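Project standup — Tuesday

K.O.: blocked on the structure for the chain from last sprint. Re-posting the sequence here as requested.
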Amino acid sequence: MVKQPDPTRRSERSRQAVLTAARELVSEVGYAKLSIEAIAARAGVGKQTIYRWWSSKGAVVLDAILTLSESGPEQSTELPDTGDLEADLKAVMRATVAEFADPAFENPIRALNTEIINDPALAAEYRARLADPVDEAKKDRLRSAQRAGQLDAETDLDLALELLYAPLYQRWLLRSGPLTPEYADALVELFLKAVRPSAGARPRVRKR
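H.V.: unblocked you, prediction finished:
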């Protein structure tokens, strides 16, 4: 009996080829010169195959970044919770700094950010599929610290995340300094000075 080809498997191979091609090309030529035609040619598929799955090259790049993240060791959005808030945040920030300094991640992420500025629909998709779930996982870890009395119970967690991460994004965006483990540690130490509970304060979890 002749085994019939599996169209689902063939389709998934084509999809992965497109995502790989998008990551490679955006690193090689930049987002402005990236085209659906070039992605299709590199992936060995027809242009209509791409448009069947994605509405724009920005959507392709977003999926390419998500797939790259999912294949790595940090695929879970859950943050470590060892009971030591400083150690846990330093581990997460060091991993974030390393990712942003890795050309395999950095070039596609820069390309995606460029497109997000001018594409509200893509920005909304990015928030829904990546930014919001990751931020919620970060806030879960901070809530745990509040319950343990390690973080001021009155801290606004959305503002806290901005306080911790905005300097990193600013340095990365403007290429104004190196992204090193020491820099990640310094950000966490400064952050904790701002949000640790006052001496003698009793733990009181703020409802959100």
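K.O.: great, moving the ticket to review. Residues 112 and 148 are 38 Å apart (CA to CA). Residues 1-5, 203-208 have pLDDT under 50 and may be disordered.
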